[in-house]
Fold:
Amino acid sequence: MDDLALARHLAAEAGRILMDLRAARTHEGNALGCEGDARANAFLMAQIAQHRPDDGVLSEETADTPARLGKSRVWIIDPLDGTREYGEGRADWAVHVGLAIDGKAVLGAVALPGDDLVLDSGGVGVLPAMAAVPRLLVSRSRPAHEAVEVARAIGGELLPMGSAGAKAMAVVRGQAEIYLHSGGQYEWDNCAPVAVAAGAGLHVSRIDGAPLVYNNADTWLPDVLICRPEWADRVLEEVARIGD
Structure:
Protein backbone atom coordinates (compact mmCIF):
# COMPACT_ATOMS: atom_id res chain seq x y z
CA MET A 1 0.00 0.00 0.00
CA ASP A 2 1.53 3.34 -0.99
CA ASP A 3 1.65 6.31 1.38
CA LEU A 4 -1.47 8.03 0.08
CA ALA A 5 -3.54 4.86 0.12
CA LEU A 6 -2.33 4.18 3.65
CA ALA A 7 -3.22 7.68 4.84
CA ARG A 8 -6.68 7.37 3.33
CA HIS A 9 -7.23 3.90 4.83
CA LEU A 10 -6.11 4.98 8.28
CA ALA A 11 -8.28 8.11 8.33
CA ALA A 12 -11.33 6.18 7.13
CA GLU A 13 -10.90 3.36 9.64
CA ALA A 14 -10.28 5.70 12.56
CA GLY A 15 -13.42 7.55 11.53
CA ARG A 16 -15.36 4.29 11.54
CA ILE A 17 -14.11 3.50 15.04
CA LEU A 18 -15.30 6.91 16.23
CA MET A 19 -18.70 6.62 14.58
CA ASP A 20 -19.24 3.12 16.02
CA LEU A 21 -18.32 4.36 19.49
CA ARG A 22 -20.74 7.27 19.28
CA ALA A 23 -23.52 5.01 18.01
CA ALA A 24 -22.99 2.61 20.91
CA ARG A 25 -24.06 5.34 23.39
CA THR A 26 -21.79 3.96 26.12
CA HIS A 27 -20.25 7.38 26.68
CA GLU A 28 -21.55 10.95 26.50
CA GLY A 29 -20.17 14.46 26.16
CA ASN A 30 -16.59 14.93 27.34
CA ALA A 31 -16.22 11.26 28.28
CA LEU A 32 -17.19 10.30 24.73
CA GLY A 33 -14.57 12.63 23.31
CA CYS A 34 -11.84 11.32 25.60
CA GLU A 35 -12.66 7.70 24.81
CA GLY A 36 -12.86 8.42 21.11
CA ASP A 37 -9.49 10.17 21.15
CA ALA A 38 -7.91 7.22 22.95
CA ARG A 39 -9.36 4.52 20.70
CA ALA A 40 -8.65 6.28 17.42
CA ASN A 41 -5.12 7.13 18.54
CA ALA A 42 -4.37 3.56 19.60
CA PHE A 43 -5.49 2.31 16.20
CA LEU A 44 -3.49 4.88 14.24
CA MET A 45 -0.30 4.47 16.24
CA ALA A 46 -0.42 0.68 15.95
CA GLN A 47 -1.06 0.80 12.22
CA ILE A 48 1.76 3.25 11.50
CA ALA A 49 4.15 1.16 13.61
CA GLN A 50 3.14 -1.89 11.59
CA HIS A 51 3.17 -0.40 8.09
CA ARG A 52 5.86 2.31 8.37
CA PRO A 53 8.08 1.24 11.30
CA ASP A 54 11.02 3.41 10.25
CA ASP A 55 9.04 6.66 10.06
CA GLY A 56 8.60 9.19 12.83
CA VAL A 57 5.20 9.98 14.35
CA LEU A 58 3.74 13.07 15.98
CA SER A 59 0.27 12.66 17.46
CA GLU A 60 -1.80 14.97 19.60
CA GLU A 61 -2.66 12.04 21.87
CA THR A 62 0.78 10.42 22.33
CA ALA A 63 3.61 11.87 24.40
CA ASP A 64 6.11 13.48 22.06
CA THR A 65 9.77 12.47 21.98
CA PRO A 66 12.82 13.95 20.23
CA ALA A 67 13.19 10.79 18.10
CA ARG A 68 11.06 12.18 15.26
CA LEU A 69 13.31 15.22 14.84
CA GLY A 70 16.01 13.13 13.19
CA LYS A 71 13.56 11.58 10.71
CA SER A 72 12.98 12.80 7.17
CA ARG A 73 9.50 11.21 7.08
CA VAL A 74 7.10 11.96 9.93
CA TRP A 75 3.43 11.07 10.16
CA ILE A 76 1.52 13.88 11.87
CA ILE A 77 -1.89 12.81 13.11
CA ASP A 78 -4.88 14.13 14.97
CA PRO A 79 -7.07 11.14 15.87
CA LEU A 80 -10.07 13.35 16.64
CA ASP A 81 -10.02 16.98 15.55
CA GLY A 82 -13.08 18.65 17.03
CA THR A 83 -13.62 16.67 20.23
CA ARG A 84 -16.37 19.00 21.40
CA GLU A 85 -18.31 18.72 18.15
CA TYR A 86 -17.93 14.94 18.20
CA GLY A 87 -19.26 14.78 21.75
CA GLU A 88 -22.19 17.03 20.83
CA GLY A 89 -23.28 14.71 18.01
CA ARG A 90 -22.37 17.21 15.29
CA ALA A 91 -20.77 16.45 11.92
CA ASP A 92 -18.09 19.18 11.82
CA TRP A 93 -15.19 17.14 13.22
CA ALA A 94 -12.45 15.19 11.48
CA VAL A 95 -9.61 12.68 11.55
CA HIS A 96 -6.24 13.89 10.24
CA VAL A 97 -3.49 11.64 8.87
CA GLY A 98 -0.67 13.63 7.27
CA LEU A 99 2.86 12.86 6.16
CA ALA A 100 5.58 15.51 6.32
CA ILE A 101 8.82 14.90 4.44
CA ASP A 102 11.73 17.21 5.24
CA GLY A 103 9.33 19.62 6.92
CA LYS A 104 6.75 19.84 4.13
CA ALA A 105 3.21 18.45 4.30
CA VAL A 106 3.47 16.31 1.17
CA LEU A 107 0.38 14.15 1.46
CA GLY A 108 -2.50 13.40 3.72
CA ALA A 109 -6.09 12.38 4.20
CA VAL A 110 -8.86 14.01 6.21
CA ALA A 111 -11.90 11.95 7.12
CA LEU A 112 -15.22 13.66 7.78
CA PRO A 113 -17.02 10.66 9.24
CA GLY A 114 -20.19 12.59 10.04
CA ASP A 115 -20.55 13.23 6.30
CA ASP A 116 -19.27 9.75 5.32
CA LEU A 117 -16.44 11.35 3.37
CA VAL A 118 -12.66 11.08 3.09
CA LEU A 119 -10.67 13.69 1.16
CA ASP A 120 -7.02 13.20 0.28
CA SER A 121 -4.14 15.03 -1.31
CA GLY A 122 -4.56 13.19 -4.59
CA GLY A 123 -6.70 16.11 -5.75
CA VAL A 124 -10.39 16.73 -6.35
CA GLY A 125 -10.38 17.68 -10.03
CA VAL A 126 -11.93 21.03 -10.90
CA LEU A 127 -12.68 23.19 -7.88
CA PRO A 128 -16.35 24.19 -7.45
CA ALA A 129 -17.45 27.65 -8.53
CA MET A 130 -16.87 30.41 -6.01
CA ALA A 131 -19.67 32.34 -4.37
CA ALA A 132 -20.22 35.95 -5.40
CA VAL A 133 -19.71 36.99 -1.76
CA PRO A 134 -16.55 35.42 -0.27
CA ARG A 135 -17.22 33.18 2.70
CA LEU A 136 -14.68 33.07 5.54
CA LEU A 137 -14.68 30.17 7.98
CA VAL A 138 -14.19 31.02 11.65
CA SER A 139 -14.36 29.35 15.03
CA ARG A 140 -17.81 28.80 16.50
CA SER A 141 -16.79 30.48 19.76
CA ARG A 142 -13.87 32.86 19.06
CA PRO A 143 -13.56 34.21 15.51
CA ALA A 144 -10.01 35.33 14.76
CA HIS A 145 -9.59 39.12 14.79
CA GLU A 146 -7.81 39.07 11.43
CA ALA A 147 -10.58 37.02 9.84
CA VAL A 148 -13.22 39.45 11.07
CA GLU A 149 -11.25 42.44 9.77
CA VAL A 150 -10.50 40.81 6.41
CA ALA A 151 -14.14 39.90 5.97
CA ARG A 152 -15.10 43.50 6.61
CA ALA A 153 -12.49 44.78 4.15
CA ILE A 154 -13.44 42.48 1.27
CA GLY A 155 -17.19 42.41 1.89
CA GLY A 156 -17.11 38.80 3.04
CA GLU A 157 -19.44 36.66 5.10
CA LEU A 158 -18.33 34.85 8.28
CA LEU A 159 -19.30 31.18 8.57
CA PRO A 160 -18.85 29.62 12.03
CA MET A 161 -17.80 25.95 11.97
CA GLY A 162 -16.22 23.40 14.29
CA SER A 163 -12.89 21.70 13.82
CA ALA A 164 -9.91 23.00 11.86
CA GLY A 165 -10.11 20.02 9.54
CA ALA A 166 -13.78 20.56 8.85
CA LYS A 167 -13.13 24.23 8.05
CA ALA A 168 -10.22 23.48 5.74
CA MET A 169 -12.20 20.79 3.93
CA ALA A 170 -15.13 23.18 3.52
CA VAL A 171 -12.85 25.29 1.29
CA VAL A 172 -11.82 22.18 -0.67
CA ARG A 173 -15.49 21.22 -1.05
CA GLY A 174 -16.51 24.67 -2.30
CA GLN A 175 -18.55 25.50 0.80
CA ALA A 176 -16.37 28.56 1.50
CA GLU A 177 -13.54 30.49 -0.11
CA ILE A 178 -11.23 31.38 2.79
CA TYR A 179 -10.06 29.82 6.04
CA LEU A 180 -7.88 32.28 7.95
CA HIS A 181 -6.93 31.32 11.48
CA SER A 182 -4.67 33.36 13.72
CA GLY A 183 -5.53 32.01 17.16
CA GLY A 184 -2.80 29.39 17.20
CA GLN A 185 -2.80 25.70 16.37
CA TYR A 186 -0.44 22.75 16.60
CA GLU A 187 1.12 20.87 13.72
CA TRP A 188 -1.43 18.05 13.97
CA ASP A 189 -4.27 20.54 13.59
CA ASN A 190 -3.37 21.43 10.02
CA CYS A 191 -0.69 19.17 8.50
CA ALA A 192 -3.13 16.77 6.81
CA PRO A 193 -5.65 19.52 5.91
CA VAL A 194 -2.86 21.60 4.36
CA ALA A 195 -1.68 18.64 2.29
CA VAL A 196 -5.22 17.96 1.06
CA ALA A 197 -5.87 21.63 0.32
CA ALA A 198 -2.59 21.99 -1.60
CA GLY A 199 -3.40 18.86 -3.57
CA ALA A 200 -6.72 20.43 -4.55
CA GLY A 201 -4.96 23.50 -5.92
CA LEU A 202 -5.67 25.85 -3.03
CA HIS A 203 -3.31 28.43 -1.58
CA VAL A 204 -1.72 27.34 1.72
CA SER A 205 0.63 29.42 3.88
CA ARG A 206 1.10 31.30 7.12
CA ILE A 207 -0.98 34.48 7.24
CA ASP A 208 2.09 36.54 6.32
CA GLY A 209 2.61 34.38 3.22
CA ALA A 210 5.49 32.34 4.68
CA PRO A 211 5.50 28.58 4.09
CA LEU A 212 4.18 26.17 6.68
CA VAL A 213 7.02 24.05 8.10
CA TYR A 214 6.42 20.81 10.04
CA ASN A 215 8.30 18.46 12.35
CA ASN A 216 9.67 21.22 14.54
CA ALA A 217 10.82 20.78 18.13
CA ASP A 218 8.12 23.29 19.09
CA THR A 219 4.92 22.01 17.49
CA TRP A 220 3.02 25.31 17.92
CA LEU A 221 1.91 26.99 14.66
CA PRO A 222 0.56 30.50 15.28
CA ASP A 223 -1.58 30.82 12.14
CA VAL A 224 -2.64 29.36 8.82
CA LEU A 225 -4.29 30.53 5.61
CA ILE A 226 -6.09 28.12 3.28
CA CYS A 227 -8.00 29.80 0.50
CA ARG A 228 -8.93 29.89 -3.13
CA PRO A 229 -5.90 31.08 -5.11
CA GLU A 230 -8.01 33.89 -6.58
CA TRP A 231 -8.29 35.43 -3.10
CA ALA A 232 -4.77 34.78 -1.78
CA ASP A 233 -3.06 38.05 -2.73
CA ARG A 234 -5.94 40.21 -1.51
CA VAL A 235 -6.24 38.39 1.80
CA LEU A 236 -2.48 38.58 2.44
CA GLU A 237 -2.53 42.32 1.61
CA GLU A 238 -5.37 42.94 4.05
CA VAL A 239 -3.67 40.93 6.81
CA ALA A 240 -0.47 42.95 6.31
CA ARG A 241 -2.49 46.16 6.49
CA ILE A 242 -4.06 45.08 9.77
CA GLY A 243 -0.59 44.48 11.22
CA ASP A 244 0.75 47.91 10.21
